[in-house]
């Protein structure tokens, strides 16, 4: 325990002796981490937007008028079976009133036109909305148009909407490709920042190679030499992450405030703020993983750099 505290004391003593050099390293790494946080937030928001767009790609079919309750129950049972088999991710049943309300929200202009011409007798019926999973859109369309439940479903409306559904499928395929690209960008950002961190650590340690060589000459063990240097690199990395996060968080708050001034309507501001807050919370969930990866890579880089220096001393 005393040895550990003495090593911590040695680290802080070294930091006090070289404050400007350490400060320069912290400023450089803080700038790097600020850029990493900014890029990862933008990538995270894009990925979440893609996932939301994917969730909107659904198959909606309407039931025939005055369909008996037992047939609706059979259809629900079949969809639950498909959900258990992971052919679909989920489904939603809406009554006539709920379908009408959803229609008025999603297509207000068309709903108003029908209401103006037909009054309250807008031709609408109960509906199911299905979110595909392993089963393709084409398979689901064929199943509901030509399968056992074709007598319960308004197949004419479903056939008319097939073109739009298949177009949505193409969008889904593009979004899947985009998602892979975004994941690649995340990996590239983490790899690039890790390489830069390794270079900073390597430069910092090589500038003090004489100190390492002298410690080795007076009989210090490898572990005794490694520990304070690794602790120092972790402390500097933590401080840099904290400073970089502080700058990033302050600029984020300022940019959100400025962005919300674009919207004149109070409701629009509320909706935008809620959406951004939801995406921000999702971003924060995987942030500890990113910080953990940076710290682990810092330790590995420090260890490898020190090993190179210690082996070089052995050769000398």
Please outline the helices and strands.
Blueprint: H1 2-17, H2 19-55, E1 59-62, H3 69-84, E2 88-94, H4 96-106, H5 108-118, E3 127-132, H6 137-146, H7 155-160, H8 162-206, H9 209-217, H10 222-260, H11 266-315
Antiparallel strand pairs: 1-3, 2-3
Helix pairs in contact: 1-10, 2-8, 2-10, 2-11, 4-5, 8-11, 10-11
List keywords for this structure.
mainly alpha; three-stranded antiparallel beta sheet; 79% helix; elongated; 3 strands
Describe this structure in words.
This protein is mainly α. It folds into two domains: 191 residues, no CATH class; 90 residues, no CATH class. 79% of the residues lie in helices and 5% in strands. The protein has eleven helices and three strands; from the N terminus they run H-H-E-H-E-H-H-E-H-H-H-H-H-H. Strands 1-3-2 form a three-stranded antiparallel β-sheet. The radius of gyration is 30 Å and the shape is elongated. The model has no long low-confidence stretch (mean pLDDT 76).
